[in-house]
Design a protein that fits this description.
single chain, 9-stranded mixed beta sheet, mainly beta, 5-stranded antiparallel beta sheet, 20 strands, 244 residues
């Protein structure tokens, strides 16, 4: 299998938080059906598949958050993503992440850097305020279109947040000193907001192979919201071709 594309994408993430890169996001069909984690580029209608780059993942996990408590589960890999055993009802939310994505190395000047790519995602069904749960988490604060970014539980300022729709329509915002960012949401349909932060704090993690040391962590997180009203959306473009 050729993983050159994802290696380039992740290396770009490590060097620039503003880089356009692959991300995971959560989708769930209208009406019936459970939610699923997708990997690719939502605004380009690109969803990676198996066999292919989807096989690079470790063990994505997800948690359904509701007034009745939390329900966690491992995702089950399918040809087009990772299927979850639940869906978010109105007033509920889902968070997901892959904390076991393989470490990778890249060169910075003459130094070899070991990096940890930590993709995560959140799906919300409304704008009621929510506390952070993911290491890098973009959450609603109670006002439509307004979100707050947290890194390790603390508000994170001066981060670029990219908001895209299925047609590729996009807006960019920057979090303020309190980690807040706001967007107009004119279109009906699905929005995905993406943000990435490179944390240059070294550390180690437990893996199946034992303890692994890393020099930095590239956090990438998304927030998905399906707006039930607004201007009729422009259709998505042709589906992108998954990498093999």
């Amino acid at each position: 299998m050729n993983f050159n594309r994802i290696a380039i994408t992740v290396a770009a993430l490590a060097t620039s938080a503003a880089a356009s890169a692959h991300q995971i996001w959560i989708e769930q069909p209208g009406g019936q059906g459970t939610a699923a984690i997708r990997f690719g580029e939502f605004g380009e209608n690109l969803r990676e598949a198996s066999p292919g780059l989807l096989d690079k993942f470790g063990k994505p996990t997800a948690t359904l958050l509701s007034a009745n408590g939390e329900q966690s589960a491992e995702a089950r890999k399918s040809a087009g993503g990772f299927d979850l055993p639940f869906r978010a009802a109105p007033g509920e939310s889902i968070v997901a992440e892959d904390a076991a994505y393989p470490l990778y190395k890249w060169k910075q000047a003459d130094k070899e850097i070991t990096n940890w790519y930590r993709p995560a995602a959140r799906l919300v069904t409304g704008f009621a305020a929510q506390p952070p749960k993911l290491a890098l988490d973009l959450v609603p604060v109670g006002t439509p279109g307004t979100f707050k970014l947290y890194l390790k539980g603390q508000p994170h300022p001066k981060a670029k947040v990219n908001l895209v729709t299925q047609s590729g329509w996009a807006k960019e915002g920057i979090t303020d000193a309190q980690g807040m960012v706001s967007f107009d949401l004119p279109w009906k349909g699905t929005y995905v907001a993406e943000v990435s932060v490179n944390d240059r704090s070294a550390g180690e993690r437990q893996s199946a192979a034992g303890m692994e040391r890393y020099d930095a962590v590239s956090y990438v997180t998304t927030l998905t919201y399906v707006k039930p009203d607004g201007i009729e959306p422009v259709p998505a473009g042709p589906a992108g071709t998954p990498s093999k």
